[in-house]
Amino acid sequence: MIVIDRLWRINMAIVFVCSVYCSLSFLYKPFSYSVAALINVTISSVLGIAIGRHLTAIKLENIETRRQLALQRDMDILTSLPNRRKLFEVLGEMELEDSLTPLTGVIMIDIDNFKNYNDFYGHVKGDECLSVVGSCLRLYSEKYAVAFFRYGGEEFIGLSTEYSYKEIGAIAESLRETIRGLDVRHRGSSLGVVTCSVGYAEKAVCASLGHEELIVMADRALYAAKSMGGDRAAGFLEATENEGGECLTLRRKTRGQML
């Protein structure tokens, strides 16, 4: 709109200057000279405005093309969620010292028995299922200000910048129930519908050193949720307790895995 407004202002200025010039020509120049000047000015003005509009259209088209290319580069087409490349770009920005939105928590989501779903219903239905889950996660992004990304395959990841461990757990549990409530038929599931497992971790409570460790912690919690049969949400601390060890022990294993 700014480019278009500027264009109209320029066109109006051209018309005004040409009108003043022609008027002065008729007042102070011979009539034949004034007529010739009027014809020349009119043709020049029309050509200038037409060329200007054409160049503006090309400029706007180039801007839109660059915008679409940027979206395709950063967006997963199937789910309309930001992709893995965009995820790590955002994580890098969050870890900057002067970041206004530092990472505080991670939520990992995995669709239960998705391979069986693909094998039974086919990949087209599998893509439709991923698209429905992606739509659900986009709504949660808007509702809770948690940025969700497609992590790969049937896995998704959410980044929190403001919630406590307990609040992230409540969001994870709500998300699990919502995805089950989508009522996507799945004959390979004991519940007859598509479900998901969710793992989460929070930086302060889990004493994470950075986003890589926090992702590993949430992923371990996700693994614990799936090990307990799926269709459940598990936090890193609870997952550690269920394994019969201390949180510190698992934390050391996590850091050892990253070294």
Report the radius of gyration as a whole number of Å: 30 Å
CATH architecture of the largest domain: 2-Layer Sandwich
Quaternary organisation of the protein chains: single chain
Helix residue percentage = 55-70%
Give the strand line-up of the largest sheet.
Answer: 4-5-3-6-7
| CATH classification class of the largest domain | Alpha Beta
N/C terminus separation = 52 Å
Beta strands, count = 7
The CATH superfamily of the largest domain appears as Reverse transcriptase/Diguanylate cyclase domain
Biggest sheet statistics: 5 strands, mixed
Structurally, the number of domains stands at 2
Transmembrane segments: 7-27, 33-52
GO biological process, one term: negative regulation of bacterial-type flagellum-dependent cell motility
Pfam families: GGDEF
Organism: bioreactor metagenome
